[in-house]
Write a structure and sequence with these properties.
With 105 residues, this protein is an alpha/beta fold. Helix content is 35%, strand content 27%. A five-stranded mixed β-sheet has the order 1-3-2-4-5. The longest helix is centred in the middle third of the chain and has 16 residues. It is globular, with a radius of gyration of 12 Å.
């Protein structure tokens, strides 16, 4: 299951992670966010031993959203060693996200 990250734990869970991290920035009211939610959960299970997969609700965590200039959702950021390594805006098929993550492993 994807880890919930927010303004208070983002640094600890994402930036300080020794594994690559995928963060799905989403909101309850966002249709495309709901469309990719099962994909994010699949990736959390599939890559549980190699990467961290997290979700960040932009309505509940505005500081993180502002810091990373999240203007459209869903936005998926890929972090490696605490820095953004890749980005995907909008709902896309699982293989697109999985390929981006695999390139960081």
């Amino acid at each position: 299951m994807a880890i919930e990250v927010n303004d208070s734990n983002f640094e600890e869970v994402v930036i300080k992670s020794e594994k690559p991290v995928v963060v799905d920035f989403w909101a309850e009211w966002c249709g495309p966010c709901r469309m990719i939610a099962p994909t994010i959960e699949d990736m959390a299970r599939e890559f549980s031993d190699k990467a961290v997969v997290a979700k960040c609700n932009v309505d509940d965590s505005p500081q993180v959203a502002i810091k990373y200039s999240i203007r459209s959702i869903p936005t998926i950021l890929f972090f490696k060693e605490g820095k953004i390594a890749d980005k995907q805006v909008g709902a896309v098929p699982k293989n697109v996200l999985a390929d981006k993550l695999k390139s960081l492993l």
